[in-house]
Amino acid sequence: MGTGHQKGSMKRACHGTTKAGNPCSRPPMRDGDYCIGHADKETKEAKGFGGPQQGSGRPRKPRTVDLMREWVEDHPEAFGVIKEALSAKRAIVVGNTKDAYVEYVPDWPTRIVAFKELMDRAYGKSKTFAEHTIITDDVLAQAMRTMEEEFARLDRSDSQPGDDSALLGDEAAA
Q1: Is the separation of the CB atoms in 27 and 11 below 8 Å?
Q2: What spatial distance separates the first Cα and last Cα of the chain, rounded to whole Å?
Q3: What DSSP state is assigned to residue 91?
Q4: Residues with Cβ < 8 Å from 38, sequence gap 6 or more?
Q5: How far is it, in rounded angstroms, from Cα 63 to Cα 69?
Q6: How many angstroms separate the CA atoms of 43 and 92, rounded?
Q7: Cα gap 166→152, rounded to integer Å
Q8: Other CB atoms within 10 A of residue 109 CB
Q9: Using CA atoms, how far apart are residues 123 and 117, in angstroms rounded to an integer?
Q10: Does the pLDDT at position 169 exceed 70?
Q11: Residue 24 burial (CB < 10 Å; 0-12/13-18/19+)?
Q12: What pLDDT is attached to residue 104?
C-alpha cells in the first residue's frame, strides 16, 4: 500500500515552525521556502497579507457632522443669512425734534451671535464644564447645626421690635 504520494513527487513544505514549535505543514510560495504566514514583512506587504484589505469589510457609515459639513460646502448660499448678520446694522433715531434723523450703526450683538454660530459650525462647539455638588449626610448635618445655632442666637437676643441689630450679627453690637 502507498503512503498517498505518487512515486517520485515530493510535496514541498514551509520551512517555518508553528507557535507550538511543530514544522509548518503549509506549502511554500512559488518563489521561496516559506508560506505567506511565515514570509518576511516586505513579502507579506507586497502580497497584501494581513491588515485591512481594500474593499473588504462593511462600509463605514458617515458621521452626521460630516454629512452636514458636506451639504454646507455644496450649498454656499446657506451662509447667506450668517453673512448678512456679520454685517448687520441697526437704525437709531438721533434727536426728537423735526431735525431728527436716522443713523445706521453696527449691530454688535447680532454680529457676535452670527460669528459664534459660524465658528460653532466650522470648528464645533467648545467644551463646557458643569460643577456638581454632592450633599452628604455630614454636610447636611453641619448645615442644620449652623441654622439651629443661628436661630438660638436670634432667640437669645433682646432685640426690640424694629431693632435689626440682632440680624446684623456681632459686628453691629460692637
Answers
A1: yes
A2: 120
A3: E
A4: 14, 15, 16, 24
A5: 10
A6: 76
A7: 11
A8: 10
A9: 10
A10: no
A11: middle
A12: 93
Sequence spans of domains, the chain: 12-48, 64-123, 137-173
Looking at residue 58, the DSSP 8-state letter turns out to be P
Cell of 120: 460653532
Scan for cell 431735525, then name that residue: 99
CA angle at 72 for the pair 68 and 74, rounded to the nearest 5° = 115
Q: φ, ψ for residue 167 (rounded to 5)?
A: -75, -25
- Which alpha helices (DSSP H) does 13-136 contain, by range? 41-47, 64-74, 80-86, 108-123
| Whether the predicted pLDDT of 3 surpasses 50 | no
* Grid cell of 112 as nine digits: 457676535
AA letter at 54:
Q
**Cβ neighbours of 34 (radius 10 Å):** 16
pTM of the model: 0.32
Q: Which cell numbers hold the place of 99?
A: 431735525
